[in-house]
């Protein structure tokens, strides 16, 4: 998904002009029969399949390391070295695909591959799991294609009224296969519903499975005025955000809890179906019942709904924070490390056995941390503060912010009376523990602004998905020089 983009919903698609040539089909007697269709669904699926085919042709040229042979070998069995023109001539299903669609996989595949290389290199330096290199696009993935706009060459936008408009994609049938008496050019009109004016864009991404279109463009800066206010934010599970002003900003937990209960209920039903079949899960899924597939689709829909709720809340909350405060300080958390599994503890007295390591409790905490999606708050704050005027985001060292008294600076484990209560053992200050941490975070952010700590600009690789993956976030390396 693109951060700098506008997403709209597809209402309907119409094909006008020539009937698009989809390729040839081999009959039982070996004859090649040309295929044509003006059915919108068939045409859109043809564009998606053609884009995926060309992407995989380009991906087959990449190489991977074979540990057995100790050498680089191609990803595909036979690397496809054909250029776009040759691919059109030899692959009939690509012959009539618009040039702006057929050319887009060249850049996208190259960007995907080298971004993954840089990301893996960065994550290895951070002693984190580098993940896998990108592979071929699967037929099971969403039906998707990208079309370059290229300053009006294709994928042109036309506004009808406040809430409706259309994207026009043009293409051309090759002359040898064009139907007699028909024009060679065809137009695909994708009518969409919009909620705001469409800004200048460089390309569009069409997801035919989800019936959405994404315009790739720059985000609008947040309109704001200088407020001379500062805030520290403590991210957590009990309260999604605690502010140094003493307030709390929480996710709509009641709605998310209802969705989670529905997901768990359906997952239990799925487990019962697999158990009654007497087969392993992977074997059962290959020929699952209609009820199983229907329930699985419902589970996926519920997960997507929860994700949309969280994303909507994060966007609205971060926008409000950027408008209200000139300086925002948050913790530079290592969320991946926080959600890591607990280390195993072998039993020294019994070989092959293990001691309790708290993994059961850690599992619940990990689930809550992932459900809160705390990393999304930092990433959204970063690019919004960068786009807004007179706004700044500082990432501070989170060490001991929950144990240090925000009044006198006394740091001790005993200060944390419980999860919610902070009681200083020296000055006897008593307040909510999350609010106390938020005040400490703000103090460290102010120390950075005043130059009282050892701070430097975060220099990170653009595609390394860390909490400061851009250049707008300032990382305060030290804690504080305050007494």
TrEMBL record:
Keyword check for Transmembrane: no
Source species: Bifidobacterium canis
Record keywords, A-Z: DNA recombination, DNA-binding, Transposition
TM helices/strands, residue ranges: none
Domain of life according to the entry: Bacteria
Family annotation (InterPro entries): Cas12f1-like_TNB, RNA-guided_DNA_endo/Transpos, Transposase
Pfam families: Cas12f1-like_TNB (PF07282), OrfB_IS605 (PF01385)
Alphabetical list of NCBIfam families matching this protein: guided_TnpB
BP terms from Gene Ontology: DNA recombination; transposition
Domain Probable transposase IS891/IS1136/IS1341: 222-341
Residue ranges of domain Cas12f1-like TNB in the record: 378-441
GO molecular function annotation: DNA binding
Name used for this protein in its record: Transposase
Similarity comment: family membership: In the N-terminal section; belongs to the transposase 2 family. In the C-terminal section; belongs to the transposase 35 family.
């Amino acid at each position: 998904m693109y951060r700098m983009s506008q997403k709209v919903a597809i209402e309907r698609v119409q094909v006008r002009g020539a009937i698009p040539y989809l390729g040839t089909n081999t009959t039982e007697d070996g004859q090649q029969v040309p295929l044509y269709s003006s059915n919108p669904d068939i045409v859109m699926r043809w564009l998606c399949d053609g884009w995926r085919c060309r992407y995989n042709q380009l991906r087959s040229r990449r190489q991977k390391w074979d540990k057995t042979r100790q050498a680089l070998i191609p990803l595909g069995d036979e690397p496809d070295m054909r250029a776009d023109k040759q691919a059109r001539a030899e692959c009939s299903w690509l012959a009539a695909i618009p040039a702006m669609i057929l050319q887009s996989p060249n850049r996208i595949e190259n960007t995907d591959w080298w971004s993954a290389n840089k990301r893996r290199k960065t994550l290895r330096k951070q002693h984190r799991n580098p993940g896998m290199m990108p592979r071929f696009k699967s037929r099971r993935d969403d039906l998707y294609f990208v079309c370059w706009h290229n300053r009006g060459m294709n994928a042109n936008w036309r506004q009808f009224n406040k809430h409706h408009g259309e994207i026009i994609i043009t293409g051309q049938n090759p002359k040898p296969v064009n139907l007699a008496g028909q024009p060679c050019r065809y137009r695909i009109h994708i009518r969409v519903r919009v909620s705001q004016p469409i800004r200048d864009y460089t390309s569009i991404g069409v997801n035919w499975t989800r019936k959405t279109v994404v315009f790739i463009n720059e985000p609008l800066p947040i309109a704001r005025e200088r407020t001379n206010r500062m805030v520290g934010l403590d991210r957590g599970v009990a309260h999604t955000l605690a502010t140094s002003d003493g307030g709390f900003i929480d996710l709509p937990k009641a709605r998310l809890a209802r969705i989670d209960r529905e997901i768990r209920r359906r997952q239990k039903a799925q487990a019962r179906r697999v158990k009654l079949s007497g087969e392993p899960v992977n074997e059962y899924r290959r020929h699952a019942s209609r009820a199983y597939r229907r329930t699985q689709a419902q589970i996926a829909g519920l997960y997507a709904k929860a994700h949309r709720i969280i994303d909507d809340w994060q966007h609205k909350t971060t926008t409000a924070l950027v408008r209200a405060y000139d300086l925002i300080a948050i913790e530079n958390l290592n969320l991946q490390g926080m959600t890591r599994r607990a280390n195993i503890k072998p039993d020294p007295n019994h070989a092959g056995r293990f001691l309790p390591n708290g993994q059961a409790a850690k599992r619940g905490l990990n689930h809550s941390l992932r459900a809160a999606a705390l990393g999304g708050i930092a990433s959204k704050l970063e690019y919004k503060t960068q786009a807004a005027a007179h706004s700044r985001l500082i990432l501070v060292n989170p060490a001991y912010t929950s144990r240090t008294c925000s009044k006198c600076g006394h740091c001790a484990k005993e200060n944390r009376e419980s999860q919610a209560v902070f009681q200083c053992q020296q000055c006897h200050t008593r307040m909510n523990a999350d609010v106390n941490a938020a005040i400490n975070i703000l103090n460290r952010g102010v120390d950075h602004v005043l130059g009282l700590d050892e701070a430097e600009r975060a220099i990170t690789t653009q595609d390394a998905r860390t909490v400061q993956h851009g250049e707008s976030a300032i990382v305060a390396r030290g804690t504080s020089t305050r007494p």
